[in-house]
TrEMBL record:
Keywords: Metal-binding, Oxidoreductase, Zinc. Belongs to the zinc-containing alcohol dehydrogenase family. GO terms for molecular function: alcohol dehydrogenase (NAD+) activity; zinc ion binding. Its cofactor is Zn(2+). Its EC number is 1.1.1.1. Gene3D superfamilies: Medium-chain alcohol dehydrogenases, catalytic domain. SMART domains: PKS_ER (SM00829). It comes from Jannaschia aquimarina. Residues 8-339 form the Enoyl reductase (ER) domain. This is Alcohol dehydrogenase. InterPro entries: ADH-like_C (IPR013149), ADH-like_N (IPR013154), ADH_Zn_CS (IPR002328), ER (IPR020843), GroES-like_sf (IPR011032), NAD(P)-bd_dom_sf (IPR036291), Zn_alcohol_dh (IPR050129).
Length: 344
């Protein structure tokens, strides 16, 4: 099968023929129908993700059809499935408490084992996977493995965003735009922040209430727009400027949610702890989503309460992945890229 393989950090991926994956006893092999290209893939590609090493097949946002099922699998050949990027064991104390995204024994295709930048991907622990809702395109469903699920859990599982509250979203890439759209669906008023005017205009065209060009007065502008500060603020980049703007834009008792990945040179940063102290703020970290929460997210989408299709900006081929990764070196245009052609 064809796969895109990391051979050298920050260099084009090698498109190679590799052996078909073996089927895990407790999982399935999927024919990949779609796979998103995510900023987390970029962190690995540039060498800043501690788990991604040369030889890795990336890709963790995938949707596929079961072509082989192991003897302990819960799904069958022909099923169309979507997968969270964290494959939880289901038996450790974290999993038993319902927090599978903090599993003590995680499997991570695309990071430490072969991912879905390939025609086929082996997925162990298929009890984590969910069936593709009828009528949902695989192109959109691919985003439900990382960006959308992470945003959903950040808003509902961590910050407990309520209708009528103000939500600020710093960065309108895949996760940020997901958070903004889901926030609106939950009844919140939403202000987004970015450095690309085209992305701000795109968000406004989708019904987002307000937009702010990032700069020295970002927090002050949000406090003005929201009449005293956001109730919840999502940081979707993982860099000091946006982390601190997120903290400083909150009203007293506000909730900051760290969704952006601080890794590599941003793993440690200076943070305005005075804003936390003075504002009595709550800080939440979040990564992924417990697989049992798919039902609530899918129900919201199937009800028509939120349209996530505008997130998908372009469908690309496997050979285009390197160019998409390189685009994350600087500000990106609106929307996300999804691989749908794995033959070239």
């Amino acid at each position: 099968m064809r796969a895109a393989i990391l051979r050298t950090y920050h260099e084009p991926l090698a498109i190679e023929d590799v052996p078909h994956p073996d089927c895990p006893p407790d999982g399935v092999v999927l024919k990949v129908l779609a796979c998103g290209v995510c900023r987390s893939d970029w962190h690995g590609w540039v060498g800043e993700h501690p788990r991604v090493k040369p030889g890795q097949i990336g890709g963790h946002e995938y949707c596929g059809e079961v072509v082989e099922a192991g003897p302990q699998a819960t799904h069958a050949v022909g099923d169309l499935l979507i997968a969270p990027f964290i494959l939880a064991c289901g038996t450790c104390p974290q999993c038993r408490s319902g927090a599978q995204n903090t599993c003590l024994d995680q499997r991570l295709p695309g990071f430490i084992e072969p991912g879905a930048f390939a025609e086929y991907v082996a997925v162990p622990r298929d009890h984590n996977l969910a069936r593709l809702p009828e009528g949902m395109a695989p192109t959109l469903a691919a985003a439900l493995g990382c960006r959308v699920t992470t945003a959903w859990h950040a808003l509902t599982g961590r910050a407990a965003l309520a209708g009528g509250e103000w939500l600020a979203v710093h960065g309108t890439g895949g996760i940020g735009l997901s958070a903004a759209l889901l926030g609106r669906a939950l009844g919140a008023r939403v202000v987004v922040v970015d450095v690309v005017q085209e992305k701000l205009d795109h968000a406004l065209s989708l019904g987002i209430d307000s937009a702010v060009m990032a700069g020295e007065d970002t927090a002050a502008r949000i406090r003005e727009i929201t009449g005293g500060g956001a109730h919840v603020s999502v940081e979707a980049l993982g860099i000091p400027a946006t982390v601190n703007a997120s903290l400083e834009c909150l009203r007293p008792l506000g909730r900051h949610v760290q969704v952006g990945m601080p890794v590599g040179h941003t793993a440690r940063m200076e943070v305005d702890m005075s804003a936390v102290y003075q504002g009595n703020l709550a800080l939440f970290g979040t990564r992924g989503m417990p697989s049992w929460r798919y039902s609530s997210l899918l129900a919201l989408i199937e009800s028509g309460a939120v349209d996530l299709a505008p997130m998908i900006a372009r469908e690309v081929a496997l050979s285009d992945v390197s160019a998409e990764l390189a685009a994350f070196d600087g500000p990106t245009p609106p929307g996300v890229a999804v691989i749908t052609d794995f033959t070239c």
